Amino acid sequence: MTGTELPEGEVRPVTPASGGKPGTKSNGVRKAAAKSARTRAREFAVQALYQHLVGRNDAAAIDAFTRDLSGFHKADSVHYDALLHGCVNEAAELDALIVPLLDRKLGEISPIEHAVMWIGAYEFRHCLDVPWRVVINECIELAKEFGGTDGHKYVNGVLGGLAPQLRAAEVEADRAAGKAR
């Protein structure tokens, strides 16, 4: 046996890339085993909303298709339903919240980042059990996993500007406690 081989049956521990956290891939995205049912629901929802934004597909047809995808059984289907149908039904209101914070026209925003911002705005408004900082973090992770190279930075900026409008008391309490800027 040479110095690089391991005895049979022994496994070399896998360490994250430099600076990475355990349970994450080298790009910082959480590994599948470390994902909660709600995180999985958001992942399926962003894919479904992408289909809606790009293909103009009907929410019911998208829903039926998505539920047949591998791994859907591990997602929180109630949260997925709320995100997909809520975002589609409130698209105009969500866009009205997002557009003032954009530095370009909404049509120039990637459909993935658009869908992720819808999810963030929807959760700010309707999922009060999810802390605002968790909403932003989950959306950043979605943008990292599905979006363009720096799309997560854009999502972070927009949702960071939206949080004080929709979760003013919560944001202010975190600022006062030194948990947020």
From TrEMBL:
GO BP field: DNA-templated transcription termination; transcription antitermination
SUPFAM superfamilies per UniProt: NusB-like
GO cellular component, one term: cytosol
Region annotation Disordered: where it falls in the sequence: 1-30
One annotated GO molecular function: RNA binding
Entry keyword Transmembrane: no
Domain called NusB/RsmB/TIM44: residue spans: 40-162
Pfam families in UniProt: NusB
InterPro entries (UniProt xref): NusB-like_sf, NusB_fam, NusB_RsmB_TIM44
Keyword terms, alphabetized: RNA-binding, Transcription, Transcription antitermination, Transcription regulation
Role noted for this protein: Involved in transcription antitermination. Required for transcription of ribosomal RNA (rRNA) genes. Binds specifically to the boxA antiterminator sequence of the ribosomal RNA (rrn) operons.
Family: Belongs to the NusB family.
PANTHER family in the record: ANTITERMINATION NUSB DOMAIN-CONTAINING PROTEIN, N UTILIZATION SUBSTANCE PROTEIN B-RELATED
Name recorded for this polypeptide: Transcription antitermination protein NusB
Species of provenance: Pseudacidovorax intermedius
Taxonomic lineage of the native organism: Bacteria, Pseudomonadati, Pseudomonadota, Betaproteobacteria, Burkholderiales
